[in-house]
Structures are given as C-alpha cells and as structure tokens.
Amino acid sequence: MTIRLILTTLLALALPACNRAADDGPVIVSVIGAEAQWRDPAQKALRPADAALLGAVAQGLVRFDAASQIGPGLAIRWAISDDGLYYTFRLDRDLADAESVAEGLRRLLRRHRDGPMGPKLDAVRDIVAVTPEVIELRLSAPRPDLLAILAQPGFSLLIRGKGTGPMSVDGKIGRLTKVVARGQKPLEGEPVVARRPIFLRGERAALAIARFRDGDSALVLGGGFDDLPYVKLAALGVETLQVDPVNGLFGFRIAQATPFLSVVENRQALAMAIDRDAIGDALAAPAWRSALAILPPGLSDLPQPTRPFWAQALANVRREGRASQASGAGSARLIVAQWRAKHGAGKIAPLRLAMPDGVGSAILFAAIRRQWAAIGVPVTRVRLRDPADLRLIDEVAPSDQADWYLRHFLCDQGPLCSEAADAAFTGALSTPVPAERAQLIAEAEQYLATIAPFIPIAQPVRWSLVSPQRSGFKANMRGIHPLPPLIEQ
Question: Quick one: which of 3, 29, 360, 426 has the most CB atoms within 10 Å?
Fold first, then answer.
C-alpha cells in the first residue's frame, strides 16, 4: 500500500459531514464502482451501479425481491411443465405485449450465450408469443435454475428502449441519479411503494464509506474483499455491516501450464499450504467461509462434492487448527522439495499472480507470498490483464447448480483440463433425464477434482453498509439488492 493511497484514504474518511440524510427524506444510496450509466443489457455488460439502476427502472419476466426470492416482473403468473421443458408466462399487458417481450428475450439470449451464462441458456430452443398476453420458452433439456437467471438485472427487458420497472429516472443519469416511484398500480401481492425518491451514486469505496459514516447516505452496496479494509479503517459499528451469505468462486485458476504448475501434486501442494483462516483474519472479513474444493456443499444437483485428495490426507491426520495447518504446510514443502530435486531446479521461477489493484488484494497477496515462500515457491503480483500463471477468480454463483462452477474449468477456458470432464459436462446439459444429468455432473466434478485446475481460498466476500432505518434491506444468498424495497412502507 503506497503512501499516496494511505493519504487518499485518510482524507476521504475525514470528509466533513454535510446534507445529513433525514430519516423521512430521500434515500441516498452509494454503489461502489463507476457512476451509473444507462445500458441495454442485450448490448453491454452491466457494472454494479448500472445493474442497480436498471433493476429499479426495468425488469425481466420475473425479478428478485429483497430476500432474493423470485417474484412477478413483466409476467404476473407462470407455469413450468412437469418435464421442465416448457415455461409459460402470462404478461401484464399494461406493461408489454408478448411479441415485444419475445424479441427482447431473443436479443438477451444472443448476448449471453457466449458468456458465463451460456450453459444456462443454450437449451432454450424457441421463444414463442402464443397470444398477446402469453409467451412460452421451449427447452431441449431441463434447466432447473432458469427462473433465477431470468430474475437478474442483466436480464431486464427494455421495451422500445424504455424500462417498465416500479421506478423511473427523474432527470439525468450520472454522478447523482434521482429515481422515483413510477406511480403504476402495484402487481398482485406487491407492496405499495412509498413516494420517497432514491438518489443513486456510483463512487469509490473510500468516498462511499466516508459518506455513510457521516450520515450522508443510508446504504452502501457492492462491497467485496478488496474494499473491506476501508470499513475497518472507518471504525463503523458492527451492526451496520451486512455480509451476504453468497457462494461462488474465490481463488486462483491455473492460467499458464508452467513446468512447476503442470504437475498436479505441485498444484495440490499450493492449495495445501494456504492458511485460509489467517487470510480471513488479515482481511478482517466477518462470516469468512474457507473453501477446499471447486464446489460448495449443499448444491441442489450435487449436495456432497468430492473432497480433494490433499484435504482428505489432512483430515486423516486428525489434528485441529494450527496443528493441522502446520502439517499441511510441511507436506507441501516436502512435495516442492522432491520436485526440485527430481528436476535439478535450484530455484523455482516466481509464479505470476494476476490480481486487482485494491487494498484487499495487497493484503491477500502478502499472505499468499508469505505462505508459499514457506514451502519454497516464490510469487510476484501482476495486473489482471497482464500475462500470468495464476488468475484470481472472485465471482458469485447465480444459482445453486453445479454447472456454473464446472464451466469455468472446461478445456475452452484454460490450459489444464480434462476431456473426460468436458464430455460428461456436455452430456449432463443435453440429457432430459434428471437422474442422468446428476450422474454426469458428478462424473465431471470428480474428473476436475482429480486434476486440480483451481486453488480455492474461500467463498466470495460481499458486503453492504446499512443504516438501521433501512428495514427494506436484507442480506441474501445472491448478493443482489434491488432499490424499490428500500422505500417500501
């Protein structure tokens, strides 16, 4: 952390209080990142403030509520066939007609099919406007989590370029965007939205936290591990920090098959040497959940993922806490020494770790460098877009299905892969038989667990700062916080 960054942070946190938000006044929300822009999700990826804005003023067929439960959007009702191959939606004709919605969905699918959501969407073979009020999605294979995908802000539909959400923009979109209740009749079962406006900012973490600390905002959204040290520096009350219980991927993907990394035992040694609890302590991350495998336990299609070989070996030692960690580091040191002796390598070339530029990344890198140096493996830090041997992944899973996790480690995604895993994965997505799909997903996961293409650290860290007056906020497992519930009465 440079002197310039330290001074910038301290100055930001020392900003004077002004325009202190009243409990009955506008709701002022900061989203960490760039300022909001109006973006069509069928054309451009959404940044955090863009997603918050679009989630308020637009909507898809369905949308998330504050607790990440799926509720009505453009569709007031829907039904799924017993075989999971037909999704039928009845629309609110006051908002959109079936032809417009069907065309918007086709554009979104074309945009997302080549991205991370591709495996979720490639089974949608047709979108049909059955009547002016009804559309039908026809699938070639079941996708149990399709509704959860369609509820995300990135699947909001713009009808003739405009949103149909419960709120609308009042004025210009930019550094401070005013969003107000649209005034339409609430959908069936939907709470009445109060008339208080929301002022939305996209800004740097230090400024957002300072504004919240001084009472000038009611909510800070979009926090991750990289920004968490600022919260500690601001000395905020623990009751204001809300951590989302999200699952996903947080760790290092092998990006370059160097002589050292091409050996699976060496990759396992790197995973074994990581003191995950120490990293959580260094980041001051509340509700820190260490991860030992690609998949978390409890997924709907694979409740008990394979435990990596190295984790099984440590468990057999029957030691606890630091003793177990020391045993793992000792075993990892022995593996590295044996590889060095076998290859006549006096030193291992430093591994290049691609990571963000933030304060949390500096803390994480310092911990990894120390822990891997202890087993004889040096590392250096590079920027995210630079050539690298390992790249940090920090992504939240959009659903509770294993295919999203496994997709990251197929042969078209990185140098270390398993053709057998690819074949099982492809078969799983194409079969209409749920039991066969589960079996093939388990096979793909076992193949990937064997080759260790990923060095897991923990579940992703996602947090918000919430004023006690904001009863409409709820921490949730998706880490998505729509703006309309914040002003519900």
Answer: 29
